Structure formats: C-alpha cells, structure tokens
C-alpha cells in the first residue's frame, strides 16, 4: 500500500506538506494542491490510517519517554518519532522524566501492564542500573540515543564513535594539537563513544603528538560555560574545543564572549547535534550532525517490526551514520612541535 | 508549604538546578550542594510530591495537547508546563495533534471520560469551531496560546496586542514608513491581535503616514520564505519586516540571504517569540519575547486552582505581558514624506 512518503515523492513535496495538507492546516498554491491530489489518486493512497485502526476496534498507541523536551535535540527527536508514528497510523503518548528514576520505572511498568503497545525509551543520566530489570520485564522497549547496559532490548544509536572520529580528524587536519573536550564522561554511552572516536582520530592524524584535556558534566548550557571556563583557566594554550552537544556549544560561546575571545580567530569550536540553527550564528558553527529524522523513523520501525519472541532481534543494535557539517568555526593553525604527551583526561 | 522555587531562591540557584540536584542528574560543586541542602532544611521543604500523591492512592495526572513539538516555542512551552506540573506534584502526559481535528477531539473526550484530571489545550489552526462543544463537555480544559472562540473555558494568552504594538512603535520610531508584516491572518487569535496592536502603534507613532503590506500564512519556516519573497517582489520599497514567529524570522533570513540583502543595512527585521538563540545570530535579532516560563506556570495554576462549578472562573481570560528585546536587526531610516496611504492588507 502506498504511504505518505511515496505520495510526497510523486507530488514533489515533503511528507510534512502532504500531511499538513491532508489535515487541513496548510493552505497551498493550486498547482501544489493538484500535484498532491493527483499523487493520492494515482497511488490509491488512503490517508488517515488512525481512523482505520479505530475501526478495527483497537487503539494503536505507543509511548515515548524522554528525559526532557526543551533541549533542541530531544524536541527534534520527539517530533521525528511523532511524524513516523503518524505515518504508521500510531498514536504517540509522550512523557518527560526529568531523569527521575521513579518516573522512568513507572513508564516502563506501564508497558508490562499492557497499557501501551510499546515504548521508545530515552534516558540521559548515568544511574540506569535499576532500570535493567524493568526493561527486561516490560519487553517491547526500544532503547534510543543512550544505553542501559545489560538490558534485553533492541538499541538504536547514532554513530557516536564516528562522530567523535570526524571531529578529531577535522581538528587534527587543521593543525590543532592542544584541544579541550567537553561532554559527558565514560559513564554515558554517548560521551564514552564520542571521546573514544575522537582520541583514535588524533592518534591516526595528529602528527607530532597532541594534548587533549577532557572535562565532563551534563549536556547543558550551564555545564558548557562552566567546563569551558575550567579548560581555559587550567589550559590556556588550547587552540580548539570539541563541545559534545548544541547546549555545550551555546555555553562555550557564552564563556568565550565573557573573555572577549573570538571564534575562530582566538579559538576554534566544533559541536555535536546540529539541531539549533547554527548556520545563522555570528560565526556559523561546524558540527557533527545527528541523523535525527532517521533516528525517529527507525525507532518506530524497530518498535513495530521486532519479533519480541526472537532473542536475536531483542538484542539487535542499529547504528545510524552521522555527518560533519563544515561551517566557519574552525581555523587552521600551524602545528606546534612541542606537544608530545599523548593525552590527559581529568574530571 | 515551601516550594521548589523558594528553595532555589534561598540557595541562590535556579529551580531547575534544585530539581536536577534532587533527582540526582546533576553533579554540583560542594558549596552549591550545601546551599541547597541548607535551604531545604531551613524551609522544611519536602521534595518528591509525586510520591506523596501516590501514597494517597491516586495518580495526579494532567494532560497537555500541542499542535507540534519541534517548533522552539512549543518545545519551550511544554517544558515550562512540565516543570510547573512537577513542582505541583502532577504527572504530565503530552500529546501532539499535528493540528488534526480528529486527534484534538479525542484528547478532549479523554477529559470527559475522566481518564485525566484536566487538560491544557493548545491548537494553532483556524478550523476550531467543531472543538467548542467538546471543550464545553470536557470542562477542566484551559485554552493556552490560541483561542477557540465561544468555548467555555479559562483562557491564557500572552499579550499579543501589546507585542504587536511594541513592534510597530519600535519600527515607527526608527523611521520606518513602508513595512511588510508576515504572520497568521485574522482567523487566528494571535495573528489578529498582533496585527491590530501593530497597526494601532503606527497610527499613534508614524508621523506623515505609512504603508503596511500584510501577507498571511502559517507560523513556519517555509511560509516565512514564501511570504517574504512575495513581499519583496510586490513591494520592493519596504524598509522593514515584522515576522510574527521565530520560524518566520528564519524563513525571512533565508529569503533575504538568497537575494543578498543584508540585515539591517538593506532591510530591518523584528521578530516574535524569542525562543531561538537570536542573540547568537550573525545579526542578533530584535524580537518580542513571549513569557514562556510564566505561561507554563500560570497554565498549570489555572488548571489546578479553578473552581469548575463557577461560571465566572470558567470564562476568565488571563493575559501575560510581553517584552521587546532590543538587539541589532533594526536600523534607523530617514522617514520619507511620500507615504500617505494608511494601510493595505492582502493575503
């Protein structure tokens, strides 16, 4: 059966445009309208799959649990899951845990209790051990974005390791040999993998040795400012900073502005996420882009298509590729030959 | 009883910091930690009100329905409601309607069916007439951000009229007399009120007459580009644009960049919402700021404190003030004496 995406492709518009047109929230020029209507007829597309599922006598409801909703990455991830769920005729209930373990556990239990058909679960704090048994009991849980080690569930991550590698390689090729890294620590899947890839890239590409100074905290604006300040106070010789989230980029920019340091003339920055409109920034920020639309679509697909009786399927890990979006926040520096210490990490 | 905010004030940190500290998701320096613990003791604050309500044998659950979640304003509004609900010991279920009337109606019905204690309802499409009877039946519904005319429900809006007035007055005082406006049309509460305030300000402040060219659509990046292009094609003499949302600002900037027009040298912009990090933009954008935190807190307060048996309370309208955040996107222009047409609006 034709889906919304095929209609959109045939009509030469985005799926969101077709979706909005169908629900009446978008006024379109006549030729666009006509192209969509023609595509719907040609493909025999039936919009409103939700109404169909109601007529089958049951509600297809899935749930998504996120730690917060204001951070652009999570807002975009929820929106991507919402769009994918909509296309599959699924209604999505969204809950925010603020990383409180009690809330996380209760939502997981709601799957065990069969109140929802399945759950896409996102957490981003390190104390996840108690969640393992709840996830095992719940089944029909997809772990997205961060890991809960040991839990039996399909997992979907972006390629954090490659993202770190791309960032490290890019800085090394631009001559940087004394670099600050701010992000989460190794207790978080994303922080560990991004830093591991980053370090490997410097080993591969930074001729003449390098020094990396790592500061860890959470993915927040406040920690971006705080960790950037610590880096600059303790290691004034750094020429670049790898900030592992959009919020950390903002916090870093704030701290650099307070010290009248210009990007990239005085110091270079490379970010991660690329959900904020970094293109429009005073210095457009080079960043590793998370495949947020693909993550949302794939998470819904895994939740709906997994055979939950199959142990192999329930331990599958999918990794989606990231890309480096080059803008103007990294300058080339002449490599100084002094740096020979391999690397140093301090919390 | 002391609340989280009072603890935060006494400790000299943000409520979010206290909240994150309490749920263990934030590592803090020892002095900050101590300040929070002292404040908790001094105020006899009991964190985790949710656990208390569970011990009373019922779940305090409220629902929030929003048209979408990716737009920064809605993400911020949901986060603000989430924080306020958390402080009041309420669990929040969030649903996205993508403006589909079927979804909106079903969520409203879930209040009538007593599945949730109350609903904060946000819509942003014009065909809301069918929702009126559902809202009347549901009761315990707070209308937030946009109106459903005729429905019996307390309403909470930002001061759209004053926001429009501030924008118009600011442009007029900077000498602008030929201005483009892009936003929603009069069928939407926000678009109507913002434009009304804007026009009144020009009547009050634009000596020598003015011309306003209005283009209407939805609050999206795509419509920002499209409406900006129409404005520039049809009215090349405009010196400023009032773009009624963050997304419309982004779309406008895209279109101006395609035409190699610089802000504010070639054309001035003033925006609305101010949720995106406009401070960091190449030209920091002057904008009317929505009181999004206050809107979230007040919406939860109205939902929980309204006496639903009292007709006066159920028709109360609350308006929260907006502010103009001055940055660098509006230039002063010498007022040209030619403009005498009062104003012109075309869709």
Automatic annotation (TrEMBL), chains A, B:
CDD domains: HTH_LacI (cd01392), PBP1_LacI_sugar_binding-like (cd06267)
Protein name as annotated: LacI family DNA-binding transcriptional regulator
Domain of life: Bacteria
One matching Pfam family: Peripla_BP_3
Positions of the HTH lacI-type domain: 2-56
Record flagged with keyword DNA-binding: yes
GO MF: DNA binding
Stored PROSITE patterns: HTH_CROC1, HTH_LACI_2
Domain HTH cro/C1-type: from-to ranges: 4-50
Classification via InterPro entries: Cro/C1-type_HTH, HTH_LacI, LacI/GalR-like_sensor, Lambda_DNA-bd_dom_sf, Peripla_BP_I
Record bears the keyword Glycoprotein: no
Keywords, in A-Z order: DNA-binding, Transcription, Transcription regulation
């Amino acid at each position: 059966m034709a889906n919304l995406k095929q209609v959109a492709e045939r009509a030469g518009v985005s799926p969101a445009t077709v979706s909005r047109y169908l629900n009446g929230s978008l006024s379109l020029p006549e030729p666009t309208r006509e192209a969509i209507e023609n595509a719907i007829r040609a493909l025999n597309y039936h919009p409103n799959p939700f109404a169909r599922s109601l007529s089958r006598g049951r509600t297809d409801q899935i749930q998504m649990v996120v730690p917060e909703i204001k951070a652009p990455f999570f807002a975009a991830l929820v929106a991507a899951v919402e769009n994918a769920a909509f296309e599959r005729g699924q209604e999505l209930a969204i809950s925010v845990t603020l990383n409180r373990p009690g809330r996380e556990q209760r939502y997981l239990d709601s799957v065990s209790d069969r109140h929802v058909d399945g759950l896409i679960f996102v957490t981003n704090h390190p104390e996840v051990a108690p969640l393992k048994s709840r996830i095992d009991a719940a089944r029909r849980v997809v772990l997205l974005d961060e890991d809960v080690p040991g839990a039996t569930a399909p997992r979907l991550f972006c390629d954090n390791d490659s993202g770190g590698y791309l960032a490290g390689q890019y800085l090394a090729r631009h001559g940087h040999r004394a670099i600050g890294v701010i992000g989460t620590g190794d207790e978080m899947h994303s922080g560990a993998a991004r830093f591991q890839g980053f370090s490997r890239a410097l080993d591969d590409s930074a001729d003449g040795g390098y020094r990396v100074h790592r500061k860890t905290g959470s993915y927040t604006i406040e920690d971006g400012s705080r960790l950037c300040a610590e880096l600059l106070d303790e290691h004034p010789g750094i020429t670049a900073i790898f900030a592992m989230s959009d919020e950390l980029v903002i916090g870093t920019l704030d701290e650099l502005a307070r010290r009248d340091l210009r990007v990239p003339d005085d110091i270079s920055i490379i970010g991660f996420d690329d959900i904020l409109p970094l293109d429009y920034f005073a210095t457009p920020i080079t960043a590793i882009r998370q495949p947020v639309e693909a993550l949302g679509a794939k998470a819904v697909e895994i939740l709906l298509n997994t055979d939950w009786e199959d142990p192999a399927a329930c331990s599958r890990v999918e990794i989606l590729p990231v890309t480096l979006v080059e803008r103007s926040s990294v300058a080339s520096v002449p490599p100084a030959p002094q740096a020979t210490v391999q690397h140093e990490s301090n919390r």
